[in-house]
Amino acid sequence: MDRYTDLQESLIAGDEAGVKELVAKLLGQGAVPGAIISDGLIAGMAEVGKRFKAGDMFIPEVMLCARVMSAGMTMLEPLLVGMQMPNAGKVVIGTVEGDVHNIGKDLVSMMIRSAGFHVVDLGVQVPCEKFAEAVAQHSPDVLGMSALLTTTMPMMREVIELLEKRDLRDRVKIIVGGAPVTQEFADKIGANGYATDAASAVDKVKELLGI
Amino acid sequence: MLIIGERINASRKQIAQAIAEGNAGFIRNEAKNQTLAGADYIDVNAGTFIGEEAERLKWVMEVVQEATDLPLCIDSPDPGVIKAVLPLAKKTPMINSVTLEPSRLDSILPLAIGHKTKLIGLCQSEDLSANTVEDKLRMAGRLVEKATAAGFLLDDLYIDPLVYPLATDPRSALASLSAIEKIMAEFPGVHTVCGLTNISHGLPLRPLINRTFLVSAIMRGLDAAIMDPTDKSLYGALKTAVVIAGKDDYCMGYIDAYRKGKMQ
Lengths: 211, 264
Known about the structure:
The complex is a heterodimer. Chain A is α/β, with parallel strands linked by helices. Chain A folds into two domains: 79 residues, Methionine synthase domain (Methyltransferase, Methionine Synthase (B12-binding Domains), Chain A, domain 1), CATH 1.10.1240; 120 residues, Cobalamin-binding domain (Rossmann fold, 3-Layer(aba) Sandwich), CATH 3.40.50. Helix content of chain A is 54%, strand content 11%. By secondary structure, chain B is α/β, with parallel strands linked by helices. An eight-stranded parallel barrel of chain B has the order 1-2-3-4-5-6-7-8, surrounded by five helices. In chain B, β2, α3 and β3 form a beta-alpha-beta unit. Chain B has ten helices and eight strands. Chain B is globular and about 40 Å long. Chain B starts with a strand and ends in a 5-residue tail after the last helix. Classes of the chains: A alpha/beta, B alpha/beta. At the A-B interface, α4 and α5 of A face loops of B.
């Protein structure tokens, strides 16, 4: 979309003033808010994610771009009343019981949100019961679990087993991540997917949902 | 400066492979190289072998102790594993690590006291990751309090302020550096230690950040480091920092390291 190239580039450059100016300009030209979000902001963040995965952009820049995108969203969300909010799906995420680590999970939340998903972040030290309740309550498309310790990783298996017991397992795709987590472990516990970093996590979510 | 050689850690692909294959020669080589490079302790970690960590760690310890006379630093978050492998340490080891979480502190502290080991204590509690100087200092205080109340010697306690990546918090280095300085001042006799790779996670040219952080930390009073002593740039930065900090009489540590070709 040529119309949105400048907006994408401003976002990728982390230029908040530029993004705000361009959003205002596009609205003035009659652009549809939902399209500005999808083809401008989300598309821009997708490029950021791509460059991050390639090692050409770094975490602080990704965080800055997400903040800039948020500034753009703040201008556009009120205008969506009555119109379709681009919604790629719903993801529930949390760090498992006994584990306080949040940096990775927060990055993943941010990237998934920036890709147009609705994210429910349960925080850290989330008991198995709370994960199960969240799946029942929110009916997410994907459940994501994070752990940074080899001693807390096993909780991921327990959550999956609890979901099976409650007949909730089939309702949701499960992805896992965190420094000690491996594809092998993910396979062993019956998760649907594993990713090594926040950008790959977005790709994996899209892949699992067939987007 | 006390150097804990970090290379024998199963989170490194080559090490995990060597452990899985029972490649004793590879592990012995790593132990030998770190010893020659100037390590004081050899850290051993088999954490990625879920369900068989104690077994694998025992094997690693046996093999490492065939190749070096240095004491070991037993690295595991699992108190059960630490308890199981402690008896195999030939020389009095260091335990890496405890936190203020009762599940770890209550089971590991008695082991450390019983076996008279050195102990690394992390500034982390059961419900808080310490991000600010104040939090880190408070947790250090609690670690000192718990340890000394149980009869543990301050000289055997190594407090790790827990260094978080700059990429997600640009003030994280300062928080740890200030914490180190305050901890050394407030609890004379205690030691401070940290790993050097967290700080640069997510940024380019990581070795540059790691060695600059090490130098800064030594200037603030850090007296132990978990690092790769075979990395000559990093080792060089350490020796340089020690001499600049005025802690190297006649600059002999620096000159000696130079003569042995240990620095870059």
